[in-house]
Amino acid sequence: MKLRRFTRVLFHFIGILLYPGICPFCGEVSTDPFSQQDGICPSCRQTIRTIGDPYCLKCGKPLEDAGDEYCPDCEKTHHFFDQGRALYVHEGPVKDAVYQLKYGGRRVYGEIFGEELALQFGSWIAARHIDLIIPIPLHRKRYRERGYNQASVIAHALADKCRIVCRDDLLVRPSKTRRLKTMGRDKRKDALRGAFRTEFRTDPDRQKPNILLVDDIYTTGSTIDEAARTLKAAGAGKVYFLTFTIGRGQ
Ligand SMILES: [Zn+2]
Ligand SMILES: [Zn+2]
User: Fold this and answer.
1) Disulfide-capable partner of 239 in 5, 48, 64, 228 (CB 3.0 to 4.6 Å)?
2) Residues 100-116: pLDDT tens digits?
């Protein structure tokens, strides 16, 4: 077993010991932490619905009107990514769980989210012939504060389940981007321009590889767009994304 994989498995089991089978949404502790019930509990599965039809064919955001193909944002914005999906709307207990993953040290939630994405989107991924999974990187300072990149935890859990290569080193974020939360779409776009560097290189004689970007949340899509733009400029084929949650607004 490679050391990195060993470390990941080790962390997984430490996670189970520290947080035995806690449901990330309601905090309910499973009586059997090693059972298949580990993760989202049956009652939350029933009450907290995943995003289903109708959803935007570009970004996966839920649509009000089943007659629409795209959300208002994707109708008027050019996106560099080809297509993406998200599992939950970013609200209520789901939003709290993502917050706990990012700021509450609940690394194990990222593993649950990644496995959940694999479970729900396994055939979606298979149909898109993904060659490589890349998590949206964190700036080094944020990484040091947090100790891990939440997107990377999700991406590796997903990649392990789908048996697709996952690389953290191909996309990096050398400069610290200002906090984007309060910015509008255009300002976000400007702030993010050139935010990523890529080590991704392709062989011109071979088919362009398709990439799946993974992040915890999709808000305006500016971050994923800039990552997709950077990777395509370096020779990527199609660039898709999966996020655990997506904002309802624009
Ligand atoms: Zn629950
Ligand atoms: Zn959309």
Assistant:
1) 228
2) 999 999 999 999 999 99
